[in-house]
Structure formats: C-alpha cells, structure tokens
Model the fold of this input.
Amino acid sequence: MAAFQYRALDAGGREQRGVIEADSARAARSALRERGLAPLEVNGIGRQHANTAMRARLPASVLTLMSRQWATLLASGLTVEQSLAALIEQADTEPVRRVLAGVRSEIVGGLSLAAALERFPAQ
Done:
C-alpha cells in the first residue's frame, strides 16, 4: 500500500486534509467517498513526491518528540510499519504527516528503515 495526501469536503462542506493509505489513487478516492468525503485532491507520497516532503524542515523539538513517541510505540510491540501509521494519525502538522507517510511508504515499498530515513533528511 502507498500513502496519499488528500484534500476533501465533508458533508457540511468543510475542507478536510489528511493522509490515507491505499493501493492506488483511485482506491484512495473510493475510500474517501466511503467515509462520506468528496475528494478534491489526492496525491501520492513516496518516491515520486519525496522532494516535496524533504523540503519540509522539522524543528529539533518536533523531531525529539516524534522520536520519543516512536520509541514508545516500538517498545509496546508494534512493528515499524504499524508504529509509523500511528504516528501519522497523531501528527499535529501536515509537514510531519508528509515526512512520516513518505518514510512509511518507502519501507512498505521494500526499503530498509535506514534507507527510507536517508531519503528524508532532517536538514
């Protein structure tokens, strides 16, 4: 599965943004419709969109908090993939979500954790 960043309207006409996992952009749009959202934009995150995510400079405080949360999730027995999915859901900002989704997408795509993290340097 790949990660897709989306922009959609809910039943009340309010714009919603987030990240969804699906096999394709078409499947992502379908999943959004099943959630009662009208997709406006669905873009893949990963190798093809790595440059956008890499431009996101994350402050040291955010990286520290994210690392601590990740360590806690891994210590609780979650896999790397599951823990990244949880971090994506908990992320407060879109740049953090994009970077985490990109790393997760690379890992799901077969890269090692080290190789995936190298594609998203902290700058």
